[in-house]
Write a structure and sequence with these properties.
It is a single chain. By secondary structure, the protein is an alpha/beta fold. It starts with 5 loop residues before the first helix and ends with a strand. A hairpin with a 3-residue loop joins strand 30 and strand 31. 36% of the residues lie in helices and 20% in strands. Helix 1 packs across helix 24 and helix 21 packs antiparallel against helix 22. It binds one RNA strand of 87 nucleotides through helix 7, strand 11, strand 15, helix 11 and helix 20.
RNA sequence: GCCGAGGUGGCGAAAUUGGCAACCGCACGUGAUUCAAAAUCACGCGUCCGUAAGGACUUGAGGGUUCGACCCCCUCUCUCGGCACCA
């Protein structure tokens, strides 16, 4: 008998499956429902790591299971190819980002194929391909038409290392998420997508999607809805009004001063001459602060008096107007009424600057009264920021806009898409707030399509997250030259039925994708408004020392090495078996031994001559359990059940029929091993991966004899083999006959007898 | 500070969701096989007492509800994630 040698069989079957287009997905198959199964596409960093494997391998078990259950499963894959990391890596190596990226894609494809997944490579997309990004640009134009893409002067996060503006989502604790450099605040003209216009829709849409609750909560908090009111305060002897946002209009009688954000537009208008010096001084100082500094000063309030006052509209009281950077420019109206008796921050500020603190009674009527006078209105605000998508970098989708001397900002015409990214000798970021594309005169200078005056192209590129905010639509129709995808194919596949990927995308990709989907739906291009019906996350794989895998820590486990040593099937199964999928955890170098041994035992069993044990009770139980477990992504207990089944049948010399069922149950987990045994040992003509998932018979799962647990006062004292479905008095008689039970019960009064059918009897004395 | 998820053997974990806590593995121990090792196979393996039969204890801590609680309720505690001067 030959030995199980994964490296001998895995490559062979991968080639064979590819040759016979086993995983080529048609848009329609008679008698099969379409099922769109999606994993998050990788960034072509050049190396497929265990994290990717952990996402793709168990997800592939699910896809294979769905196929066997009769679905026409599409499981596409591609590459999120634009963006900073590739560009930075290319700069470091003195390579063109394109060459670097495409080289990585080739290398990673090979690695990905070693997983043995059902990916349909014929639908592969690469976001850096003109055929792809033309539609990214087209979507931008749709947003532009709808007034949802705008060039605005915004206070934005500037990363001095990456030399570009970043979206709020890409800044963590005041640092650039890519390079951990402290970001600066800069006021610049940037392209923003008005995601805040969709804040409420994004909140409401969560009702109907099957996503992990925790992920929904993350998004909800990120969008951060608060209900309150806008109230107007008048400045004496002028027509100027200062609007404030408050969630507590009922505290207005306690408002003893107002505070404006330093960036507030009225600051310059209201400041009195005698205060001008101090105010300017303060504004200069805050401008220089980084986000991090501003955050670290939470406890210590700073501020300056403007010399101006405003009337409290509730009682006409004249209260001073201050400036402080604890008031944020982008939240509410950038101005507050301060109620030190009811708010800790206002209190701290009042204490520091000796401002009055007034205790008052709450007034729930005041909002209505002020509303009638036109001085207040109810208002909901959100913490969510608009999505700044301008990047002053080279390796991204060009923003399809031109600036005409006469006509101003104009979109590029659809027929002129794609605006191709030109090849550049020097693509390094300049750091002067301009994209390197600005230096390419022959690319930048064009004629206006409307008036033929000279015009300039927009030279910023788009945030990579725009590319990935719609890629799942393209898979339905990846080669379409006329549309981003045809109506028909969208209808055939979307929305995505099952989406599996990391939770770290909760407030980035997953939010953006929902936003873009809703915009396209509102413009009539989609007839659904949530992209991912079911979403599930895999956990994080750590190094053997329980720390995040990284080269600097020296704890990286190389998947290629593991494939060589144990084979893909073992890694797949180990990842399924190691624990709940959403947990992740450290890679246990010994742990994989367990599944490797298991696969060896399967190999040996099937290679033995089949016996004639046809008992199948254990099989029915296993078919049910494994099927239900995979459906719910409980891969660990599914594998456990397979192991139990093997333990049970291994010594019984099972018949060929039983062996076949066993292999089918194992097939989604170990596609190579099962294929080899199915075709070469059992001599089947067709692939096991075209087989149907076995059926089970519920009646055969229920044993006729049960283990009746007998407790006395809630403690188990005896287990009796008993016939199923006994009546209560029969059980009572049986229990009291037991010698052990007699010992506990004799001479005592039985106060209660509880019997739960086919499970447990409890005698209370 | 606010929001969320958790805490079960030496380790990963399981528990029909209120009904035998620790399935399935890893690691470990003993034995078989071997000249020897690896591999493989068999047995053992929550803690304490006991040669054993058996008994007592045990799901972060404390309380409650219940015939019965890892599961439900209350209080506390620790760990991990997210947000964070959001008016």
């Amino acid at each position: 008998m030959s030995k199980y040698n994964p490296s001998k069989i895995e490559k062979k079957w991968q080639k064979e499956w590819e040759k016979n287009k086993l995983y080529f997905t048609k848009d329609k198959v008679k008698g099969r429902k379409n099922f769109y199964h999606l994993v998050m596409f990788p960034y072509p960093s050049g190396d497929l790591h265990m994290g990717h494997w952990f996402n793709y391998a168990p997800a592939d078990v699910y896809a294979r299971f769905k196929r066997m259950r009769g679905f026409n499963v599409m499981s596409p894959i591609g590459f999120d190819a634009f963006g900073l990391p590739a560009e930075n890596a290319a700069i470091k190596r003195n390579l063109d980002p394109k060459d670097w990226t495409y080289g990585n894609i080739e290398a990673m494809k090979k690695q990905m194929k070693s997983i043995g997944a059902v990916f349909d490579w014929s639908r592969e997309i690469i976001t850096a391909e003109p055929d792809y990004y033309r539609w990214t640009q087209w979507i931008f134009l749709k947003l532009f038409e709808a007034g949802l893409a705008k060039k605005e002067k915004v206070l934005a996060n500037w990363c001095p290392h990456c030399k570009t503006i970043l979206a709020n989502e890409q800044v963590q604790n005041g640092e650039c998420e890519r390079c951990d450099t402290v970001v600066e605040q800069r006021l610049l003209d940037q392209w923003v997508l008005k995601i805040t216009d969709y804040a409420q829709k994004l909140l409401d849409g969560m009702e109907k999607i099957n996503w992990p609750e925790t992920t929904k909560v993350l998004q909800k908090n990120w969008i951060g809805c608060s209900e309150g009111a806008i109230i107007k305060f008048q400045i004496p002897n002028s027509k100027l009004l200062i609007s404030v946002f408050t969630t507590r209009p009922d505290t207005i009688f306690g408002a003893t001063f107002m505070v404006l954000a330093p960036e507030h537009e009225l600051v310059k208008k209201i400041t009195k001459d005698q205060q001008l010096g101090q105010v300017n001084n303060y504004l200069e100082k805050t401008k220089k602060k980084t986000e991090l500094e501003r955050l670290s000063e939470v406890k210590e309030k700073t501020g300056v008096f403007t010399g101006a006052y405003a009337f409290n509209p509730a009682n006409g009281e004249k209260i001073p107007i201050w400036i402080s950077d604890f008031v944020l420019p982008h939240y509410g109206t950038g101005a507050i009424m301060a109620v030190p008796a009811h708010d800790q921050r206002d209190f701290d500020f009042a204490k520091k600057f000796n401002l009055p603190i007034k205790k008052i009674d709450l007034d729930s009527e005041i909002l209505n009264q002020l509303s009638k006078k036109g001085l207040a209105e109810r208002k909901i605000t959100y913490r969510l920021h608009d999505w700044i998508i301008s990047r002053q970098r080279y390796w991204g989708t060009p923003i399809p806009v031109i600036y005409c001397q006469k006509c101003g900002i104009l979109p590029v015409l659809e027929k002129d898409l794609p605006v191709q990214l030109p090849k550049l000798e020097d693509f390094k970021p300049s750091g002067n707030g301009q994209s390197p594309l600005a230096k390419v005169k022959e690319w930048v200078d064009i004629r206006c399509w409307r008036c033929f005056s000279s015009a300039r192209r927009e030279t910023d590129t788009m945030d990579t997250f725009v590319d990935s905010a719609w890629y799942f639509l393209r898979y339905a129709d990846p080669k379409n030259k006329k549309e981003f995808a045809s109506k028909e194919k969208l209808k055939a596949w979307l929305p995505v039925n099952m989406y599996i990927g990391g939770q770290e995308h909760a407030t980035k990709h997953l939010l953006y994708a929902r936003f873009i989907t809703k915009v396209l739906a509102d413009s009539g291009y989609l007839d659904f408004n949530e992209p991912f019906s079911i979403l599930r996350h895999q956990g994080l794989i750590l190094g053997p020392n329980s720390q995040k895998m990284s080269k600097s820590r020296g704890n990286v486990v190389d998947p290629d090495e593991m494939v060589k040593k144990f084979g893909s099937d073992s890694i797949r199964m180990y990842f399924c078996f190691m624990g709940p999928y959403e947990n992740g955890g450290p890679w246990n170098p010994k742990g994989i031994n367990g599944v490797y041994r298991f696969l060896n035992r399967v190999w040996n069993l099937v290679n033995k001559k089949p016996g004639n044990d046809k008992s199948d009770k254990a099989f029915h139980k296993a078919i049910k359990k494994i099927g239900e477990d995979i459906e719910n992504l409980r891969f660990n207990t599914a594998v456990s059940e397979l192991m139990k089944l093997l333990n049970e049948i291994e010594d019984k010399q099972p018949a060929k029929k039983q062996i076949e069922v066993f292999l089918k149950l194992l097939a989604p987990f170990a596609p190579h091993l099962t294929e080899e045994l199915w075709r070469k040992v059992l001599k089947n003509k067709k692939s096991i991966h075209l087989e149907k998932w076995p059926e089970y018979d519920q009646r055969l799962i229920e044993e006729e004899m049960i283990d009746l647990v007998v407790q006395v006062n809630g403690r188990t004292r005896e287990i009796i083999k008993a016939r199923r479905d006994l009546k209560e008095n029969e059980v009572r008689e049986l229990a009291l006959k037991s010698e052990k039970i007699k010992r506990y019960v004799s001479g005592k009064e039985i106060r209660k007898f509880i019997y739960i059918s086919n499970k447990i009897a409890n005698i209370v004395i």
